[in-house]
Every structure is written in structure tokens, then in C-alpha cells.
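Q: Give me the 3D complex with dihydroflavine-adenine dinucleotide.
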Amino acid sequence: MDIETLILGAGAAGLFCAGRAGPGVVVLDHAARPAEKVRISGGGRCNFTNLGTRPESFLSGNRHFAKSALASYTAQDFLGLVEAHRIPWHEKTLGQLFCDRSSKDIVNLLLAEAGKAEAEIRLDTAIGEVGHDGSRFTVGTGRGTLRARRLVVATGGKSIPKMGATGLAYRIAERFGLAVTDTRPALVPFTFGEGRFAELAGVSVPVAARTWGPGFAEAMLFTHRGLSGPAMLQVSSYWREGEEVTVELAPGTDWAAALRQGRKAAPKQALRTFLGQRLPARLADHLAAEMELSGTLAGLSEARIEALARALSDWRLKPTGTEGYRTAEVTLGGVDTAGLDSRTMEAKAVPGLHFIGECVDVTGWLGGYNFQWAWASADAAGRAI
Ligand code: FDA
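A: Here is the predicted complex, encoded as C-alpha cells.
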């Protein structure tokens, strides 16, 4: 059977593209249910966009590539659709928009839009050989080979193989001669040596954290395996093996001034108590032990104050690694944008072949940016089809 447009992947980008592309679209997915990542996203409430979306919030080999699609389909556009579907939502923090009820509302929106466009969604369909027979794209499935005039690849990245991530998009890109940049887990917790923070597991603390990239002032969470929480997930997208992560505790605190002031006002106060007033108790205990902080504020020399202030505002931590694709929210890198038209997501050298969503080398920060990229890139391709 000849199909007008075949979309591979019934996730966020694939379903949204089906809704924008109009009749004649067939969507294939090997999963039993569509948009599983949307369903589990945002702790079950789906952080479906970010009102502060701007190109600077994305990592890519070409920082200009995402501009066109993000400008053509904005966070406000998606919000308009959410409201048209009467989905209650709220802004949590930093422009992040979540469903009031459940992420299933967004899955239903995607299915309703695809249904309105008369797209056919075929689940439980394994995808085999993908090629081109000279006039049509060909896709082998367990139930025979499909032929299509256009092929949209929306099979996501490598994150969370347990949820069906396969990296298929990269293999298709290479099969058609497109370059694929190095891929790595991003928005992923850090691991540290055995038991490094075990006694702190569950403690959350506001920090400002960075590697060589931008700084993120958000929460940091200690886990049995290492460090997580929004600040660490954000930083992980910029981190490379062997690098340190710099953490400022109680961001904005002038620790040297606070210590001097404390020494003057409460000289008999124990250092551990001083820290406990500004940091969670378990973290204060940990730091007091690690920095060998005994005695009172009165005993602090100027040099010791300076050293302590540096340690607290510039805490250097060296992760041993990350939790990898097993828990990474997204995959950094992907189909090289140099081979794609930024207005249509079409491969420059292969007319009719489009790549959208996470498989493209455009990766957003934590906070709804990755879904906004899925919607915007899907809209760009959908309008071009
Ligand atoms: P997506 O992964 O959604 O879809 C790909 C589809 O292709 C899947 O249905 C898969 O089954 C199918 N597929 C893959 N390989 C295949 C093969 N070989 N054959 C057939 N089908 C195949 N982002 C955000 O902005 N806000 C948030 O709140 C969250 N929260 C979040 C939580 C968690 C736990 C994760 C893992 C991720 C997030 N994200 C997020 C990221 C977000 O989920 C991600 O960026 C988008 O789902 C990417 O959309 P895509 O459609 O590109 O891939």
C-alpha cells in the first residue's frame, strides 16, 4: 500500500506532527501505548512547555538552528491549544507549565489532534529495514513493507531503553548519509564513589551549580548514589568525564561576611550551629565533619574565615560518572543539524525525509523546553508536508 506520509514514532513529536500534517498520515510505533514518555513526564503532570523558551535554553552543535522553529511555534501557541482542549494547568516555577490533573490530558490532546487530522496510528508495530526504492521510502514491518512518499523520523533518542528507546533515528540518518553527532545521556543524576553522600540521601538544598556552562540556581538533591535534583540535572548536560562541578551553598550568602558578623555577635556559637542555621541539619553535620569544623566562631582566624567561605560558596565536587541512559531524561546530540533545513526539518540531501524531536541535535534544559522543541520541530515538519 502507498502512503502519503509515514511517521515513525508515536511519541510527543510524532503524534503532534500527525495532527499538524493532515490526512494521509500513518504513524508507526513498536510500543503498545502511544506517548509513554509524555504520560510519565513531569512526575505524572507533564511539564508541557516553558513560557521563557528562548534559543539560549537549548544545547546544539549549531546554536542558531532551533531559532526558526521555536519562533514559528511558540510556548504561547501550545498553551493556546491546551486551553482550547480545556486542560487545567498551572505555572510551577521559572515559567514551567504543568497539568493540574494528569499528563494523560496532554496524551489525550495529542491523540485528539491526530484523530482530527484523520491520522492512522499503528501500535505494536516493529520497524525493520528502512530504505528507498527509487520512488518511495520503504519501511519493513512485521506485517509487510510499507511505501511512503514522505518519511518523518520521530523515534526519539536513547534515554530509558526500558521505555522503548532504541536509537533507531540515528541508524536511519546514517543509512541516508546524514551525519550524527556524538550522543550522551543528559539531564541525568551524577554518581559518586561508594557511599560518598549516603548519609545525606533525601536531603534537598538550594544551590547555584555550574561546570563550564551556564550556572543554575535550583535545588540539589543528595541520593544514595550521588547527586540529583534540578540543579544537578541541568549541569549534567554540560559536564564531561573528569570535570568538577562547582556548588554554591545558600546562593547569594556572603559567607565571609556572615562568619565575621557571627564571630562578633555570637562568639560562643559553635561552628556546627552556625552552619545548621543556614543549611539543612544533616548537611551541616556532614560539612562540619568533612571540614573538621570544631570549636566556636571566636576561634576563627581571618585566614580560616576566607578558606571556609570559599569552601561553602565554591564547593568542588568530582562525580565519578552519571546514571547513564537508564535514567537520563534526554539524549544530548543526535542527527547533525547541518544536514537539515531549519524551517522544515527536512534532510537537505534527501527530499521527503524529516527528523523531528529528541533525535535531532537540539537538547533543552530541564523545565518543559524539550517538549516545546518536540512541538515546534513537529509543527515545522507538519506544515511543510
Ligand atoms: P519520544 O521518546 O517521546 O517518542 C519516541 C517514540 O518512538 C516512542 O513512542 C517509542 O516507543 C518509539 N520508538 C523508538 N524506537 C522505536 C523503534 N525502533 N521502532 C518503533 N518505535 C520506536 N520534557 C519536558 O519538556 N518536560 C517534562 O516534564 C519532561 N519529563 C520527562 C520525564 C522523564 C522521566 C523522561 C524520560 C523525559 C522527560 N522529558 C520531559 C523529556 C521528553 O519526554 C522528551 O524530550 C520527549 O518525549 C521527546 O519526544 P520525541 O517524540 O522526540 O521522543
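A quick observation: The pocket of dihydroflavine-adenine dinucleotide is lined by residues 9-14, 29-31, 37, 40-42, 46-47, 127, 154-156, 159-160, 164-166, 168, 329-330, 357-358, 368-371, 374 (CB under 6 Å).
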